[in-house]
Every structure is written in structure tokens, then in C-alpha cells.
Amino acid sequence: LRVLAEYMNDDQELELTTFQQLYIDVSENKLELVKGKFKEAGLICYPVGSFVKSLRTCNFCKGSEEEGMPVAIELNKRIAGREVPFTLKPAYTGCRVGCGEPLINDIGIIKVGTNEFDLYIGGKSKGADAKVGTLFKKQLVPEQLYAMVDDILDLYHEFG
Predict the structure, then answer these.
(1) Are residues 35 and 74 in the same domain?
(2) Nearest 5°: phi and psi at 86?
(3) Is the same domain home to 77 and 151?
(4) What's this model's pTM, rounded to 2 decimal places?
(5) 74 & 137 share domain
(6) Are 101 and 34 within one domain?
(7) If both were cysteines, with which of 8, 102, 153, 156 could 12 make a disulfide (CB 3.0 to 4.6 Å apart)?
(8) E-assigned strands of the chain?
(9) 28-57 residue pLDDT tens
């Protein structure tokens, strides 16, 4: 947080989004410097606009390995910031409780076994047409999950 504060004006607000992202305004002439400083501090900067948002996860998972967080972290590295026709929101949860809200996001992943994941698509959390996502593939192992999500994003990028 200290690194964030260093580049904020006294009257500026720090915004925490529903996707666990922090937003601050940075002047364009300082952007590369700030991105470098954030990277040094372990923070990742994603573009704003029509891109894949960072993977939303459960807020308070107690067991990184048990809840499959290494898979979530790897998936986020692969997809967050990819250009798409319209903002796409992915979510992940490490158990069937669904704290990361995967069923009401564009792409949702639920850990269902020791190393297996169900993949949902088409969820929508807001509006009169809000809906639960559709189960697309069951019991994918991590490499299958990564490949399937890549394929979905490639199709979305190409055909919208």
C-alpha cells in the first residue's frame, strides 16, 4: 500500500473493485515509471477497457494447496489482461461453496476434486437478465482447464 500511496495525490481516492483490483489515477507521463515501481513491489498492472479482468477468487481461503490456489494463480497469469471485444470477468472458487462467485461471471471455475475443475460459461450477475452460468465442461485437470479457457477466449476475441 505504501507504493500505491507514493503515487497518489492527497485528494485522490483508492478504489477497490468487486474483482479485487485497486484503481488509482496516474498521469500518462508517469505511467511507465509507476508500473515499474508496482512490479518491483509485486503488484501487477492490467489495462482498463475491453480486456479480461483479473481472476476473482475466494476472499478467505485457508488452504492454498487444498483450495487449488496455485491453479488459480497460473490461470490468472495466462488470461488477465488479454484483449477481448468487451470486458470479460472470470471467477474461481476452490470448493463448491462458491465464495468467488464463479456461477455469476462470464467464465467460472469450481474446484470439484483433488485436482479437477468444472468450467462454467455465460453467467451474469446484474440486470433484469441476470443468470447462472452453464456448466460447460466437467472434471478438467489443470492443463485441460488452461487449454479450454484459452480456446474460449480465442473464440470470443475472434467472433465476439
Answers:
(1) no
(2) -150, 145
(3) yes
(4) 0.84
(5) yes
(6) no
(7) 8
(8) 15-16, 22-23, 90-93, 107-111, 117-121, 134-140
(9) 898 899 889 888 988 888 888 899 999 988
